[in-house]
Design a protein that fits this description.
The chain is of the alpha/beta class and 477 residues long. It has helices at 24-35, 72-91, 102-119, 139-145, 163-166, 172-179, 190-202, 232-239, 242-255, 273-286, 308-328, 345-354, 370-377, 409-421, 424-440, 443-462, and strands at 4-10, 38-48, 56-60, 63-71, 128-132, 151-155, 184-187, 207-208, 214-216, 219-225, 259-266, 294-301, 336-339, 357-360, 385-389, 402-404. α9 runs parallel beside α12 (345-354) and α10 (273-286) crosses α14.
């Protein structure tokens, strides 16, 4: 079996298998590397006064981890700049928040080149290389330029924007051209994959051949959809852990017989938290009889605090929750509990289990694993109801949820009412269908399908298909 090298922006050294400190992506990577022996390579998260080119290697939780430090200028230009001020908002359809600066682009190119320089000595001829996410789009090209002949795959964990939006990015063709140095490009959904194909056909003058691969810029790549999942059985176990049981009991006691709506998100403008608050406000305004019968617990984990858009968002959320609580609260009831702190995965499992309704309503999301974790944490006999945005990648799989338009406060408010009034038999039927999907399309299925496609790429690149049959015009209009 070939060795697997996973490359990501940040590396979180895993603890013992099943440890709760890791997020969804980190757990997926750890699971992959335990199955296919190899290396997890990336930025340590630490800054250094001057770039040294040194690598730190350690063995943690059954995984070999290799990390490098970045200069402060690298962090500001590559990470806070191009990755999170340029690509993140653009790929989440927030062109109004997208910032373009040449220094950001220069830092992005410089850090990707440094990743390649540090990684090349670690690569053996038969290794499979799996690059993760938007921070490292040019890495495949940088590795090819340094002589890497390996099968290299790339997975995008966020949406791919419509081609009209992508075309607003300075040097957008160069960024897409870099992706053609990968043998396989993975997306969460067919929608994001098709948006990428549309760009290649109509902006880059490419063509699609009969096996689904794309030809452009003199190279061929295969775009595919690989919806990521969770460790379903592992998450079921978390709700039964000591910490999971304790957090469930604490929340149940604090409910005082009321119904609890739950939102769990990173503090990000893509998650639709503001719109969720406004929908809850609309519900209370139109149905005052529900006062003191329900409340919303919103857990928002701080992120990217150095980016102005996130600082502004925290201020707006606190203002919304304060205004709504001031308008509706009673002496013994507060409608919104607005929490900004990190909870362990065990604690979250208990909180999910105690929720009557989960509001997973992002404005745009690559997948959203909170929806799947909520389902896995429910009690089979008395499950809660999932209200899910149609613009989350998970909506393509989780059709038994109540699917909503998160931009419509009326739509979300109506779905909350429907969820709260749903008979137990319907809740059980919806949950069983959702849980079957969560178990079937789990993290292992995601891992194995991508690695299998990467292994198959060796044959495809050795014997490329003839470009024929399916072509597209070079440009519309």
């Amino acid at each position: 079996m070939s060795r697997l090298i996973v490359v990501s922006n940040r590396v979180s050294p895993p603890g013992p298998e099943g440890a709760s400190s890791q997020g969804g992506l980190a757990m997926a990577i750890s699971a992959a590397l335990r199955e296919y022996s190899g290396i997890w390579f990336g930025w340590s998260g630490q800054s250094t006064p001057q770039y040294t080119g040194q690598i730190s290697v350690q063995r943690a939780g059954g995984v070999t981890v290799a990390t490098m430090d970045l200069e402060e200028q690298d962090i500001q230009e590559y990470y806070n700049g191009y990755a999170n001020r340029t690509l993140w908002p653009l790929f989440h359809y927030r062109i109004d928040l997208t910032q373009y600066e040449r220094s950001y682009g220069s830092g992005y190119a410089r850090v990707n080149a440094r990743f390649a320089e540090m990684l090349m000595p670690l690569i053996a001829p038969d290794d499979l290389i799996w690059v993760q996410d938007y921070h490292l789009i040019p890495l495949g090209r940088e590795l090819r330029e340094r002589g890497a002949k390996n099968a290299i795959g790339f997975f995008l964990h966020i949406p791919w924007p419509a081609r009209e939006l992508m075309a607003t990015l300075p040097r957008h063709r160069q960024l897409v051209e870099a992706m053609f140095h990968y043998d396989v490009i993975g997306f969460h959904t067919e929608e994001w994959k098709n948006a990428f194909i549309s760009y290649v056909l109509y902006e880059a003058g490419g063509m699609q051949v009969s096996d689904g691969s794309l030809r452009a810029f003199g190279r061929t790549t295969l775009p595919q959809a690989f919806p990521i999942g969770i460790d379903a059985q592992g998450f079921v176990a978390l709700k039964q852990s000591d910490a999971g049981v304790e957090s469930y009991s604490r929340v149940q006691e604090s409910k005082l017989g009321r119904k609890m709506l739950l939102g769990v998100d990173r503090l990000d403008y893509s998650k639709g938290i503001e719109e969720r608050f406004l929908a809850f406000e609309r519900l209370l305004s139109e149905h005052p009889e529900m006062k003191q019968e329900i409340f919303l617990l919103q857990i928002s984990t701080p992120t990217r605090s150095e980016v102005d858009a996130y600082q502004d968002m925290v201020t707006r959320l606190d203002a919304h929750s304060g205004r709504i609580n001031g308008a509706f609260a009673e002496m013994d009831w507060i409608p919104i509990r607005n929490v900004h702190r990190v909870h362990s995965r065990e604690e979250l499992a208990g909180i999910y289990r105690a929720a009557d309704v989960a509001l997973v309503t992002p404005l745009r999301d690559g997948m959203n694993l909170v929806a799947k974790e909520f389902v896995a944490a429910q009690d089979e006999e008395d499950p809660g109801v999932l209200v899910l945005s149609r613009f989350a990648g998970a909506a393509q799989q989780m059709k038994e949820a109540l699917i909503v338009n998160p931009f419509s406060v009326e739509d979300v408010a109506d779905a909350i009412r429907k969820a709260l009034a749903m008979p137990v038999e319907e809740r059980r039927n919806r949950w069983r269908a959702l849980m079957d999907g969560v178990e079937r399309e789990d993290i292992l299925a995601w891992r194995d399908s991508f690695v299998a496609s990467l292994e198959a790429a060796r044959e495809r690149t050795a014997k490329p298909p003839k470009p024929a049959r399916i072509a597209a015009p070079r440009r519309e209009g």
